[in-house]
Amino acid sequence: TFLEITTPHEMKGFEHYIIKHIVLDNKFRIVSEKNFDPSKDRAYSKHDISGFSLPLFVLSVCNLHDTWLKPFKIN
């Protein structure tokens, strides 16, 4: 099972960009993370969440605006 994450956020090179996506389990342990190269990447990542049935949390980290947290419930 894979979780695809897209952050609708501009990527203006190293001036303003999404640094990474992080997927956390219900105890806030890292399940998966993807770092971005702002010179060529967009804020999209794909994570293998096989074996997880509890709620997960997704973090999107911006170099200027800090971090957003979004809960994700697996059906």
In short:
This protein has no helices and six strands. The mean pLDDT is 91. The chain has 75 residues and is mainly β.
Walk me through this protein's architecture:
By secondary structure, the protein is mainly beta. Helix content is 0%, strand content 49%. It is built from no helices and six strands. It has strands spanning 2-6, 18-24, 30-35, 44-48, 56-62, 66-72. It has a four-stranded antiparallel β-sheet, with no helix packed on it. A hairpin with a 5-residue loop joins strand 2 (18-24) and strand 3 (30-35). The radius of gyration is 12 Å and the shape is elongated. The mean pLDDT is 91.
H/E topology pattern:
EEEEEE
Describe the strand arrangement of the main beta sheet, using strand numbers. 3-2-5-6
Give the count of helical stretches. Answer: 0
Please count the beta strands (DSSP E, at least 2 residues each).
6
The biggest sheet, with number of strands, parallel, antiparallel or mixed sense and barrel status, is:
4 strands, antiparallel
- Spatial separation of the terminal alpha carbons: 11 Å
